[in-house]
Amino acid sequence: MPKRTDIRKILIVGSGPIVIGQACEFDYSGTQAVKALREEGFEVVLVNSNPATIMTDPELAHRTYVEPLTPEYVARIIERERPQALLPTLGGQTALNLAVALAEDGTLARFGVELIGAKLPAIKKAEDRQLFKEAMERIGLALPSSGYARSLEEARAVVRQVGYPAIIRPSFTLGGTGGSVAYNPEELEEAVRWGLQMSPVGTVLVEESVIGWKEFELEVMRDLADNVVVICSIENVDPMGVHTGDSVTVAPAQTLTDKEYQLMRDAAIAIIREIGVETGGSNIQFAVNPDDGRLVVIEMNPRVSRSSALASKATGFPIAKIAAKLAVGYTLDEIRNDITRETPASFEPAIDYCVVKFPRWDFEKFPEADRTLTTQMKSVGEVMAVGRTFKEALQKSIRSLEQDRWGLTLGRPADAEELRQLLRVPNPDRIFAIGDAVRAGLAIQEIHALTKIDPWFLDGIREIVAVEPEIARAALADPDVLRRAKQLGFADRRIAELAGTTERAVRERRRACGILATFKTVDTCAAEFVAHTPYLYSTYEEEDEAPPTARPKVVILGSGPNRIGQGVEFDYCCVHAAFALRDLGVEAIMVNCNPETVSTDYDTSDRLYFEPLTLEDVLNVVEKERPLGVVVQFGGQTPLKLAVPLREAGVAILGTSPDAIDRAEDRRRFNELITELGLHQAAGATARSLPEAVAIAAGIGYPVLVRPSYVLGGRAMRIVYDDTDLSEYMREAVRVSPEHPVLIDKFLEDAIEIDVDAVADAGRVIVGGVMEHIEKAGIHSGDAACALPPYSLGEDQVQALAAQTRALARALGVVGLINVQFAIRQDTIYVLEVNPRASRTVPFVSKAIGAPLAKVATRAMLGHPLEPWAWIEEREPAHIAVKESVFPFIKFPGVDAVLGPEMKSTGEVMGIDRDFRKAYLKAQLAAGSVLPASGNVFLSVKNRDKRVVMTLAKRLSEMGFSLVATAGTARVLERNGLSVELVHKVAEGHRPNVLDLMKRGDIALVFNTPEDGRARRDSYMIRRTAVTQNIPYYLTMDGAQTAIGAIEALLKGEQRVLSLQEYHGARR
Amino acid sequence: MRPALLVLRDGRIFRGQALGAIGEASGEVIFNTAMSGYQEILTDPSYKGQIVAMTYPLIGNYGVNEEDVESRRPWVNGFIVKEASSIASSFRSATTLDAYLKAHGIVGIQGIDTRALTRHLRDHGAQDGIVSSVAAGPADLVARVRDVPGLVGRDLVAEVTAEAPYTWAQGGWERARGYVAPPPPRCTVVAYDCGIKWNILRQLRMAGCDVTVVPASTPAAAVLELKPDGLFLSNGPGDPEGVPYLIGAVRALLGRVPIFGICLGHQILGLAGGGRTYKLPFGHHGANHPVKDLATGKVAITAQNHGFAVDPDSAERHGWTVTHVNLNDGTCEGLRHREWPAFSVQYHPEASPGPHDANYLFHRFTDLMARKGG
Q1: CATH of B157-373, one of 2.60.20.10, 3.40.50.2300, 3.40.50.880, 2.40.50.140
Q2: Quick check: is B263 catalytic?
Q3: How far is A562 from chain B (nearest CA, A)?
Q4: Where are the domains of chain B?
Q5: How far apart are CA B132 and CA B150, in angstroms?
Q6: Which of B43, B113, B202, B302 is the best substitution to test chain A (most A C-beta atoms within 10 A)?
Q7: Which of A232, A866, A985, B309 pairs with A207 at a CA distance of 20 to 30 A?
């Protein structure tokens, strides 16, 4: 079927901010879709609140709306743009939910918008548990057996059918709260009683447990002619019971016979047809009983997913791109396979390698969080590694994680009992513990009994561990042993560890023996056809099939797995670098290992190396490609750490020199620089021991800001108020030592913080954006909200900040991007930090000002003049953009939702409008804080904020809000003539207390400024409850004040939407 | 591990380690891109005369079981993998791949760069080769590989066909029940055994056919004596022109009884009906080939295993219509005679290994017989 001609304009909905469970895989899918639909001549309208995405680049769609992803705002966009169709299947659950809301509230019908890809009934059938179950029964497929119960007796009756262990799920609770597993009648009684109590409707679902069963996923595509293909099978190494996002997974499936696989394939095809997903990709999960092969359906996502991004990268088959083309009427056989160019997309990729996906967790950011892995996802990112064997891919994956792990070991002593515990209860260290368990002599059968991980995977780990003694003994002496080690995926560094030598010695020995990495192509077809896209991975085989071209080329190092502090923003910069290089006719070579990203789309660069970002793996690429140089300043800390070792290995670093980077990072050299330029910085020094630290703190006076040197995302950064705090921090958080010094600075209380992003070359510095933080100093810049242009600074201050930025860029010899963090306190400007590299805010600034800073920087690094971009500084914007951060607290019960100098946010949104308050309102909405227009506001502030709270309370009261407060705050407000409802603190022991009110839905807004230091535990439950009840809350007076401004804007009137192209119209 | 060698006719040498039986084997080296189903592949008689290289690098993971067999023994001349699993992980497995190959005297090699081999065969064509885990070095093998007989014109069918007629009772496979009892038959079919895969017989039974399998050398008259409702022409190894006696028999039966052919059977039918066949550079061996049914426009993902193909123009000139086309390379995948009740497909609707998408063809056959009979 040819493409549809009755559709001209299509709305694509993105997935909003990065949160746990929904990350940049949807930027990848959305970007592919926009490109594909444009290619087909459609007019594309895009909406996404996340500015750090490639899809929101104004060059990509015809109209780009960075607006809140709420039904109201999207309805306004629809009203304005009048698209004929909405494609909801590429923006994760967010887009799907929005589409459902817009269909159900009549918006789509009112404006004649057709849902393409998946229609409303199909979405409902897949998402509604009961409808799904009925659908599966119609086609003869089983789900885990289950039944509803309203009493213990009924639950017992269901258990007689499903057996123990049984899963008890209370009906209608958020995010699986109150669910538990019962292994015996006693536990059942307790679980059911608890579950019935938790459920607002007094019902629990009692379900057969499939914990420990093998878990599989199939990525399925269907077209309008009802052709269905399975793109990829994925097998979870961690069996059922661990969320697939938290599981180590492999592609393709490894332990299914063809007979079993084909039954699963038949089931998947039947499911996509029965559910009625018309076109595009779906992800279907199955569990298989390892004892008898019984197959049950777990769930289906009627849209592209994280797994489909993985499947696309694992096979070379671009699921989202094809899905977009199918949605507009093409059939699979009408679409060409980009990689082979000659064969059609109506086939099933054949893989001739093994892919391992390994999740990355950031529990060190949330020390109070439970590290047990369950059915609720907790990882913040993932890596993918490709090898010719499972063993090779697994070992490549663990070094891709960048957690300083080089082998399958915990890296610390653990006795057999601890190991057994680590094996029994799923946790982030489990795979590593398996290695140590093998070393400790546990039999594979026992490890299998504890983990339920398929013996085939365990045997792979056993083989890796088994060869280690031989590596230790003979890797340097015997080239055969060394080659074998490399084929098993051992890193040079791990070999060095085992053999008691240095990584460099291993590398040199390897080279001397001619044991070099060979590169193979990911080609969708196992080499049956010629591949035209150089999408490569390394292995130690006989043939290298991808000779470099003769063109001038540049290697861009990506940012590796997403983590808190290093996310999609850096991938955005790397992608822009690739685009800029291609524009300049320079071959762009990307190295990265994150399967979720746009940078690892084979379309983005000229050559893609899907490789770990370690010195060894990068040198393999660089030595083969011989590029003009390597770009290290776009991928965050990951490539930056490699700058010096790469330079020492003789590799040219493009742009700002590694020495300048060191000058900005090294405390002593940085101090010299600031002094030399006559600038100010907070008093401070470097401590190499506790006594030294105490002395420094005494010298500069508390509070002080402490942090380890060389960190990103404020890792382990803290404000301490006294010697006790300080010594606790030094002992527990950082373990200070001469090799690991700690920086101690005077904390600038109540200072205004500012971020500046600029781009420089040898002759010129262009300041891209000056961002004023909403919250005062003390909150990590990655977590703070900010406004561009500044909303409260004077023009002279802005000019001074720009001038200081220029001076710093010149003094450091920056070529490329630079980010400077300033604080202003009592009219003095302090330089907090200089980062001669891309910052997290580059995409936000680029979207706010309408200039692609990372592209400009790339051109500068290749010697192209900055003059054409001088207009950036001359622009007089009529709009203001606000960035707000998004946090993962909901996923981590027990973690305090409090902010500080250590970054905790996973993502960000942007609100843009002509008016600051409206822009802030949009940013809040986009971040999920639905500011109320009426209702009760709960106020509880620390003493020093009581003065400010009076004015705020007065404004709230004037706007018609009722005030609720605990004794201390209430007294202050009443004394000032405000009427306040007094509510009990939890500690007072009377009910109802403030938490009861919050849970009852009686509180619409929370202003809570926690006391500093240890006293803040008191108000912990208030913040936790605000998080779980989804009540908007503000933890600083600055935030509260701004929020009130936004509420005023909300009450005043009409919210409008405008596209980035219109905001930046003058330049385009 | 014991070293082993693979030497190709054009002199390319691969060094790896022994797999399966220790010894030497020769044959045409081809690659198969299916990611699962190695046991079915090993036991498919169509591979007689060939050394099969699996492009998927990890083979043997789920071991070898009693059920997933396509004939009474493995037929491949030799077997090539990147890495044979040292353990067998499946509730159904009975033994490991290595032990199975040893037990059946199949010589294999592992640890070679199978992707390099695949690219070589793709670019230079499938060719004869020798796998050896006993040779002292490659020199002698390089010399002897020129004497390997090759497939063209050879009658390999004679080596795999049944010695005497037999009937078939087993139905399709289900997870919990294994091979089930088929439904009562509605029609009778004589199947020429050129190396027939058992799953074809199972699927014929499931479609309601009472099947009598006869040796490939059975004369047409003997077939007619059985008064079948339909005739089935099976898959089998090698060059269809190597079995002129069968081509002759089928020519005699064309138009007298409804005929359905699969793979070699499709080629035999094409030749019997006046068409020509030719050798493909490296054949189609895998489980992911898109085939379009020109009548419905639908695409099926198919299992394929053939080195020869029917020239569509020659067939069209002799009364055939091309019904199916391979979307990868445009080769002829299906024929239907414009006058006689005869049709065939080049691929494997019985799957095993591979997708079940084309299973409808068995019903198309029973429908054809029903129309003729009724």
Answers
A1: 3.40.50.880
A2: yes
A3: 30
A4: 3-147, 157-373
A5: 18
A6: B113
A7: A232
